[in-house]
Amino acid sequence: MKPLTETDVRASFVNLTKGATKRLNLPADLAEQPWDDLDYLGWQDPKAPQNHYLVTEHDGRLCGVALRASRETRGPRKTMCALCASVGDVALLVASRAGRSGQDGNSVGTYICADLDCSLKARNKRKLDSPVIHETLSAEQKVDRLLGNLDAFVARVLRPA
């Protein structure tokens, strides 16, 4: 992924108001991200831990998606991430749909690694939370799977209900 600036990130969100975009807390270490190893920028808001954000390229443009953790009382669960297929601390994250549909309350959700480190896990650069079934896929194939799953999720956010 190419390095992103604060301006890039704030301008990319498809399911936030302009005011909410201005108020969101960006990662403190934005400039120091391992950009060469990222397929998307993902972070959890340290001041509002139920809020998560991801920014990726979709159809040739930057696309930011605001996510909210579901109101599970047990916290993250040991289950499979829908993006990278790793098993570990995964949370049900819900995104309002883009545009009028989202303003009407329509949303989509999926299970994603609570730390949003799928890119590093797919490249075997982040230790997995739990022992996993041995996969025969190469790191490149895992990254391709991640990109396909991420693209499909973002397309669901952008699609009218």
TrEMBL record:
Domain of life: Bacteria
One Pfam short name: FBP_C
Domain Elongation factor G-binding protein C-terminal treble-clef zinc-finger: 8-157
Organism name: Nocardioides albus
Name of the featured protein: Elongation factor G-binding protein C-terminal treble-clef zinc-finger domain-containing protein
InterPro entries the record matches: EF-G-binding_C (IPR032330)
